[in-house]
Amino acid sequence: MEFLGLFNYWVVIFLMMVGFYALISRGNLVKKVVGLNLFQTSVIIFYVSTGKIVGGTAPILIGDDHGVAEGAAEVLYSNPLPHVLMLTAIVVGVATMAMALALVVRIKETYGTVEDDEIQAQVLADEQREGARP
Amino acid sequence: MIAAHLPAIQVLGPLLAAALCVLVPWKRVSWGIAMAGAVTAFGAAVGLLSRVLGGEDIRYALGGWAAPWGIEYRVDAVNGLVLLIVAGIGVVVTLFALTSVEREVDERRIPLFYGAWMLCLCGLLGIAITGDAFNIFVFLEISSLGTYALIAMGSDRRALVSAFRYLIMGSIGASFIVIGIGLLYVETGTLNLADLAERLPALYGERTVLVAFAFLTVGTSLKLALFPLHVWLPDAYAFAPSAVTGLIAATSTKVAVYVLLRFFFTVFGVTYSFGELSLGMWLLPLALVAIFTMSLVAIFQRNIKRMLAYSSVAQIGYIILGISFASVTGLTAATLHLFNHALMKGALFLALGCVMYRVGSVHIDALRGLGRRMPWTMAAFTAGGLSLIGVPLTVGFVSKWYLVLGALEQGMWPVAALVLVTSTLAVVYIWRVVEAVYFGEPSARADSVSEAPLRLLVPTWALIAANLYFGIDASLTTNVAGQAARALLGGAP
After folding, report:
1. A41: CATH
2. Residues A38, A19: contact at Cβ < 8 Å?
């Protein structure tokens, strides 16, 4: 049961490692960006999981205009703060993705490829021409 | 009335300027707006620091929401000094940018450039001023996104690749920081740094806190380019436009060091990070390896911007070395070097910006014989180099002095000796440039150049003057740094 109870966190770790692995092992810049996005998404799932309580409801006051309703004290609320934080993190993630993809487009235009090793070969050629490295 | 809202103005000035810069189609006007934003931020930073030195602990509830619910801005001696560094360098480098950027950046992109420029400044100031852990992450990403865009605008095509690599590394670092902050929130139920500092001592034994500590340390170390995590830095500095290199070399790693200080000393507390986890034993060897290997690598660089970038990683090693002592003298040295290194690297990169403007290259062969053609620029470079080495009457000497004192205080005389030995490595790489500049035969291209325009020389020499002034009369900086060190070791901000 312990394993199932922590299911969300296992998913987080799995996604994080998949993203991280893609980031390190893939030579294609677009695939690297996808890996980075997976990595960031796992963090979002982590935060959202921490705020959720089994049987918890949205944190909206139960009752009418005149006050709190009968038995409202027993209502279980989920913590809204991690969810709200993740709205910000999602926006940041989208901005990072857009920035990264824009750079990949510029790299493709300039170098004619999005493969890391081919770009590296051209970079080294640049350096040799300039004599930047002994 | 205005004085009460200085903490908000500190961040909002550059943020509003960023939005306005992008809206106007004229490059000069957008520069004017950026300059106004930078000056506003500088004024606010001076006001805040003078109030802090007057003994006030500034707490500002943003938007009128009280601390545990809303975001709180707190200023003490530590971040007061960091704000002053960032805003001060911001003004000088923005002044420099007007002429330099017109030469190095595509004309149509200049308003966008200043937009990203102001976002970067806004993010850096925000990280320094905020008292909320998640807010640190948000500002960190604002400044980083601005920086990636700025680096990518470099005229060399390698700028794109280095910006992309920095983006990947920087985003991993930022994600690590968010994970750390999330784990802390799970344990304590608060994001306010002061509240975290109060609640964490009861939880020192928890593994979650340990994991949070590890994630925050690695994430921040990536951002500040601590030795094995520095690989993004040299290329990013080398291929960014000159003004951008000046800005980020002088400010962004310093702000990351500040975040590290804040988490190690204020949030987790010195008893946890340096007592229980004996972090000093981990930081000390890393710092020494950084100083030694990076200074050596710098000697063999032929692109002078890249040489100074490697030297930056070594200089960050000195700062981390001071932190690893976890004593008042050690932290004073670290804080002083934070300030002093911003001045010297800012000056050196601006001097190279002048060379870039006239010669179009910062390769060592292109610099040959420039001493006679551009005497003021090269005198500035030499003075900055002397400061980097740590010659008396410059700021470099003051911070090295405190660093050696801190090492001797711990009884680590081999470390003190190493600090002195590694300074000679700095002599070697600075001398290579000085030799080429003053004793080399000018190339055909270098022979026809003239001195850099006054609009570039004035900001460069302003920073050199600061290097000399604070090197001769160090009472102000040592006073603030000492107060900052005691505030850090004293626990809650």
Report:
1. 1.10.287.3510
2. yes
